[in-house]
Amino acid sequence: MSSLVRRTYSTRPARQPPSSPPSDLVSSPPRPNLKRKRPLTDHLSFTNTPTTKKAKPQKSTNKTKQKTLTQLHFALETSVLKTCPLCDLTFTQGAPDDESLHRSHCLRVQKGLEWGKEEEKESVKAGVEELCSDVRLKNGSKGRIISFRAEVSGRIGTKLQTLLDTINLTLSSPPLSQRVLQASKVYLFLLHCPTATSSRREKIVGCVIAQRITSAMAIVHPSSDETVKDTPTSLIPVDPSTNLYVCPTPLPTPMGIPRLFVSSSHRRLGIASRLLTSASQTFILGCPLDPSKGEVAFTQPTGAGKSVLEKWGKGGVRIYEE
Fold first, then answer.
1. How far is CA 6 from CA 3, 11, 13, 15, in A?
2. Residue 130 burial by CB count (10 A; 0-12/13-18/19+): exposed, middle or buried?
3. Where are stretches of biased composition, namely Basic residues (predicted)?
4. Cα-atom radius of gyration of the chain, to the nearest Å?
5. Is 98 within 8 Å of 92 (Cβ atoms)?
6. Residue whose C-alpha is closest to residue 138's, from 188, 186, 191
7. Which fold has domain 112-319?
């Protein structure tokens, strides 16, 4: 009895074997492993490269932080400002510029300025005219009075500018404008100060600036029983502390005195009155002026200036606005 054979494969035709044997079955030398090695950093779980942390976003606040400020105060026992009793100049102690200015200014206020050989050499060129010579003062010293135009230049012009700066600083007055200087003349009192080395040494100890003006106001003296409150409103107060008032009505006046100065060491010797007399007699050529008749006027005078104009002007001097 024949036994039945059972096929366990499909009826698909069998695949023919390849013509050449596979590479793994051929006895050939093994190929070298050409696979690249992985870098060390691929095997490590950490690296030395610092990681950048992401900045946390700051909360935007409208309020800004305000710093607390501290103010420092210096408690000084003495004030740094000092007023000189000799020249009445207030300066800052400890400041080199202020102290240097005070020394030079105080020396000029007390003793005047030098009039040397250089100024004397330019006298003819600058048109300097000697009005009086050998003028004897109350203390026996002698001097002379010279005059020239206020717009002079050169070394004499420089000396005049220094003198005017000293006068303006002493009187707390503004500088004279160029227009005023063009219509003015300068009168100087030169005091003889001979020394062992020079017999012609002179100093400027007095100065008067005379200006051409057209009108001024008459001085009015209220009666002694009237107080300042009872003074008529039509009067203009010039210096109520000295009871000095003027009438606002302008009166014809040919000459004005905007500046008057005498060094402190040479006051009360008659220098101011000598200068004013020379100015009133020679300011207008061939026409002497009489202060008692109101032909001479002053700008707003100080206390010392008020006594001079009252004594020299004999009550007729007027006041004008500079």
1. 10, 13, 17, 21
2. exposed
3. 53-66
4. 52
5. yes
6. 191
7. Aminopeptidase (3.40.630)
* Amino acid identity for residue 50 in this structure: P
* More confident of the two residues 150 and 239: 150
Q: Buried b vs exposed e over 254-268: b needs ≥16 C-beta within 10 Å?
A: bbbbbbbbbbeebee
Please state the separation of Cα 262 from the chain's center in Å: 27
Q: What phi and psi, each to the nearest 5 degrees, are found at residue 84?
A: -75, 130
Residue range 165-176, pLDDT digits in tens = 999 999 889 999
47: pLDDT confidence band, cut at 50, 70 and 90? Answer: low
Q: How far apart are CA 195 and CA 201, in angstroms?
A: 7
Closest CA to 136 of 70, 191, 204: 191
**What whole-number distance in Å separates Cα of residue 100 and Cα of residue 89?**
12
28 vs 19, 22, 24, 277, 307, CA distance in Å?
Answer: 18, 11, 9, 145, 142
Work out whether strand 90-92 and strand 244-252 pair parallel, antiparallel, or are unpaired. unpaired
Q: Which segments of the chain belong to CATH 3.40.630.30? A: 112-319
- Listing DSSP states for 257-297 in one string gives EEEEEE-GGGTTSSHHHHHHHHHHHHSSTT----GGGT-EE
Distance CA 60, CA 228 (A): 70
Query: Is residue 109 within 8 Å of residue 170, measured between CB atoms?
Result: yes
CA nearest to 137, candidates 288, 284, 267, 247: 267
Question: From the CB of residue 170, how many other CB atoms can be counted at a distance below 10 Å?
Answer: 18
